[in-house]
Design a protein that fits this description.
single chain, lyase, tryptophan biosynthesis, TIM Barrel, indole-3-glycerol-phosphate synthase, alpha/beta, globular, EC 4.1.1.48, 10 strands, eight-stranded parallel β-barrel
């Protein structure tokens, strides 16, 4: 069983429990349920932003604890001041040490798109995403059948949430494409070995139809890589670990974005 299968097995139990504890009718009473969402797609395409989705995560299955002490408020405000286009917040507790409150805190202190980074397998989690203040959700092709992913993407649209679909290879691309997707992300991490390779993104960028915003995820730690990926055709970049593994993630993000801007202006 690879890590993704383990996570999904746990997620099925977790969702069943949460449905009993917090029924959808209760979630729909949240102050965020009627709020207008901020477009991830539009922010990624803004010329005055970096295209970087800066991520808040405490740990991961591949690295263990990354940063147990960072504060959501300070880190996320700092990310946005540094010039990030959007925020990604891990809400999975078991494997990534996140919680729903992390996302609500990020939402409270920032006017920008906030992506709920979790392993979504059920409509309930999309209602939950809306109730905690998310603007966009992640759907991972490797976790879902094409039909199921399309159903979940269509459901997200009924709640005005945007959808980022994540793929790891070409097989996960065309069968899953749907007009309800906004962003397609290539995850450079091999889920079986945990190794990352930017070549994965480069191989797939031209295969993704241009109506979707294209982003590269995982294994980006050098500003020169952003320049390279931009030239290849990517418009967004999801970066978490490179920032979070430092003592001050928001400062690391500011220095990184400044270095990218310098290289792009050369």
């Amino acid at each position: 069983m690879d890590i993704l299968q383990k996570i999904i097995a746990h997620k099925e139990k977790e969702v069943a429990e949460r449905k009993g504890l917090f029924p959808p009718k209760l979630l729909e009473q949240s102050i965020y349920f009627e709020s207008k969402t901020v477009s991830l797609k539009k922010y990624l395409l803004r010329e005055d932003k970096s295209g970087i989705i800066a991520e808040f995560k405490r740990k991961s299955p591949s690295k263990g604890v990354i940063n147990a002490h960072a504060k959501v408020e300070r880190t996320t405000i700092g990310y946005m001041q540094a010039g990030a286009s959007a925020l990604s917040v891990l809400t999975d507790s078991e494997f990534f040490g996140g919680k729903n409150e992390d996302l609500s805190t990020a939402r409270k202190f920032n006017f920008c798109p906030v992506l709920r980074k979790d392993f979504i397998i059920d409509e309930y989690q999309i209602i939950e995403a809306k109730s905690i203040g998310a603007d966009a959700i992640l759907l991972i092709a490797a976790c879902l059948t094409p039909e199921r992913l399309k159903e979940l993407a269509a459901f997200a649209k009924t709640l005005q949430l945007e959808v980022l679909m994540e793929i790891h290879n070409e097989e996960e691309l065309h069968p899953y494409l749907s007009p309800d997707l906004d962003v397609v992300g290539v995850n450079n991490r091999n889920l079986k070995t945990f190794e990352t390779s930017i070549e994965t993104s480069k191989m797939l960028v031209d295969k993704i139809p241009n109506e979707f915003v294209k982003i590269s995820e995982s294994g980006i730690s050098d500003p020169a890589t952003i320049v390279e990926l931009k030239k290849a055709g990517f418009q967004g970049f999801l970066i978490g670990e490179a920032f979070m593994k430092t003592g001050r993630p928001e400062r690391a993000a500011a220095e990184f974005i400044e270095a990218v801007q310098k290289q792009l202006s050369v």
